[in-house]
Specification:
alpha/beta, 3-stranded antiparallel β-sheet, binds flavin mononucleotide
Length: 459
Amino acid sequence: MRRAPLARLNRLANNGKSVPAKTGPAAGLCESQKKGGSRPKPETAIKVIKNSNASATSPSGRRDRVCPGPGDLLYKRDTVSFWERLTDFFISQPQREEAFEQHLMSRYATAVLYSLIKPALFRIDAEKAHGLALSALRLAAPARAPAYPPSLASVVAGIAFPNPVGMAAGFDKDGEVPDALLRMGFGSAEVGSITPLPQAGNPRPRLFRLVEDRAVINRMGFNNSGAQVAVDRLEARADTSGVVGINIGANKDSTDRVADYAIMAKLMAPIASYLAVNISSPNTPGLRALQDESALTGLLDAVIEARDAACPPAKRPPVFLKVAPDLEPADIDAIARIAIDKRLGALIVSNTTISRPALASVHKGESGGLSGAPLRDLAQQRLRDFRKATGGAVALVGVGGIANAEDAWARIRAGASLVQLYSAMVYEGPTIARKICKGLIELMKRDGFASIAEAVGSE
Ligand SMILES: Cc1cc2nc3c(=O)[nH]c(=O)nc-3n(C[C@H](O)[C@H](O)[C@H](O)COP(=O)(O)O)c2cc1C
């Protein structure tokens, strides 16, 4: 039997002792906050984290995870089931590919539908359109995910990914539709960024489509419903299979951002496939300073300590770190060293850029982070830089301007074990992950690779 989320949070906040549910906020969140009052003193929050009882926070024994080191290749019991292994045994790779092809055809209608509604969608405000997209996914996603050919599957940081194409953070900030995204064909969904307390983000408008540039500028500012809502929602699906990473951030007005990340690590570790530490959003002033060497070391120590306190060793999700593309060579070397030293599961390269290549759209002067096609070359170069700096000792997730199978393949050949996208979904529609997977199968064959894993870093 799984414990009720609030009861679990009570135990978290009360050093493992049960208290009545109505008085139990999330770890580090005090009563006044629950009622919409001021945030807790960071020292109190950290004290709660440091003192709490590790074994009390583990839910139903849902995941078997081994805290991975660099290059570890381990199967996780809940993502590669006995039945999937049995199916692999009896069904050949060509048969799997054929089944996948049929699934694509059956989803052809979705692609046609999207091309029909896209002009209307693009006439309304970008943020409203995003809200509609979330609702459509909730209502219309297929009943189950495609059966991917084994050549697309890989194990990264101890997690079995059925295909390498993930949904990047920011699309599903509150963890509302991770399973719908997986059923649409994404091999993983990263929800967030989620902060300890709910926050409204920056004033609207704050999201802009740069149609001529196939790009997006956003200055959302970590708008999200906060940790409590996310925990309740994600705990409800915690026994469902599928890779769902949780991207964690700090509140804008926090006086102790490290404490915020530690709170988030503690709360999310028991329900995340992996934790993504986001210190690279350009829309929270000062956040990117956490990428500096000494700040980053302290931050990761706090996150890892909080994660370890929340889960017994076999159930600890790996920690991924998401970096900006706007980094100097010395920063890249320092981050790579720290990532190896702290045995991070992966580096996610990269977030949006504050740089502005030549753009055509009327929105080109908007402030915020730029994503989509104009970010592609910069993100590809940063991935190469991190591959060189890490020497392949840490897995890399390539993000930024990936819009088709060729882009994804180039990122994989440059060293990415996995890729993610967001902006291209706006332009290409919800079938994009399946299209990229199909293209990757063809590109693997063309270039003589038997699997994605074999092609990583082969350029
Ligand atoms: C509207 C929007 C919101 C985003 N919000 C987040 C976020 O909350 N956390 C995060 O780590 N990245 C966020 N991102 C960055 C994306 O995850 C991704 O790193 C970036 O957009 C580059 O990928 P793309 O070119 O495929 O969009 C956001 C991006 C967009 C466009």
